[in-house]
Specification:
alpha+beta; Tetrahydropterin Synthase, Chain A
């Protein structure tokens, strides 16, 4: 009899705890549908694997408390829409000698040279539904798309441009092509930033390339110096030439005027000579003697014993 009572007490106690456990499990299951969506996150609800809501406004839930059915019915997926995601693309970069690796990263440029590149990529989630449901690993897809764009765009650049003055244009082209391909795949992300972090040549040819590049820089410097010298000297020479031409034209004008004046005077004297040759001859003689005496300076007339006039 006592054994039966003890068994009944044990069974009653176990039953009581079992009911409590069942109630606790039910409560946990019921409360599992309550989610706290953090600031900077958005959430979507999948009910038996199908998204809940017909419009984006109904499908996407912002930060706050979210009430859903227990996890056996609903699955809540959170997406970090309010933060910028960042990762590095090292697919086309090899650190060290390329010949020592089985798999080497590089791009082939438009002039059939090899360059090694790595880049930093930042993106934001513009469509939480597409980001959460389109692909299993969105970042893997983004990395693949950007890596492929880096290869395709590099084929349009010479290696010198890619490593020097063309880097900015290259990054813009890669950014644009990557975004275009991501939109085609519809994974709901927007590239906010693409930047080359390391750009160079393989180690085997790096020293030679740097020597060639240095030589090209020196050549460009010399050409610029020659251009500046040209721009300095040519205007000076042109100004000097213009001054000489102006002086020659002025001399020509003066000499021509003087010659014309002498010519007019000659013709005037000629007319007078034809009319009165003796008078004009004496006048010209006297004028010439007067000019000669002026050029001589002081004139002394001495009457010597031989009755000759001596001009000293």
């Amino acid at each position: 009899m006592k054994k039966n009572l003890l068994f009944e007490d044990i069974l009653r106690t176990v039953s009581r705890y079992f009911v409590v456990i069942i109630i606790a499990v039910v409560l946990v299951i019921c409360c599992s549908g309550i989610k706290f969506v953090k600031s900077g996150e958005s959430a979507i609800i999948l009910r038996f694997g199908k998204i809940v809501g017909d419009t984006p406004e109904e499908q996407v839930h912002d930060a706050g408390i979210l009430f859903a059915f227990p996890y056996i019915i609903d699955e809540v997926i959170t997406v970090p829409t309010g933060s910028i995601q960042e990762f590095t693309v090292n697919t086309h970069y090899t650190d060290g000698e390329m010949m020592t690796y089985d798999r080497n990263g590089y791009v082939i440029t438009g002039d059939n040279n090899i360059a090694i590149l790595s880049a930093s990529v930042k993106y934001t989630i513009s469509d939480p539904v597409a980001y959460a449901l389109s692909v299993k690993d969105p970042q893997y897809i983004i990395n693949a798309v950007v890596s492929n764009a880096m290869i395709n765009v590099a084929a349009n650049y010479a290696v010198d441009d890619l490593l020097t003055t063309g880097k900015d244009t290259y990054t813009k082209d890669v950014h644009s092509l990557s975004q275009e391909k991501l939109d085609e795949n519809g994974i709901g992300v927007t590239l906010s930033h693409f930047e080359l972090t390391r750009v160079g040549m393989p180690e085997e040819v790096r020293d030679m390339y740097e020597l060639v590049n240095s030589t090209n820089i020196q050549a460009s410097t010399r050409i610029e110096q020659a251009r500046q010298y040209y721009e300095t000297r040519i205007p000076g020479a042109e100004a000097q030439a213009a001054a000489l031409i102006a002086e020659a034209q002025a001399n020509y004008s003066n000499f021509t005027s003087a010659a014309n004046a002498d010519l007019y005077e000659f013709y005037g004297v000629l007319e007078e000579y034809e009319a009165n040759p003796d008078v004009v001859r004496v006048r010209l003689y006297n004028t010439a003697i007067t000019n000669i005496i002026r050029q001589i300076g002081t004139v002394k007339i001495v009457d010597n014993s031989d009755s000759k006039i001596v001009i000293d």
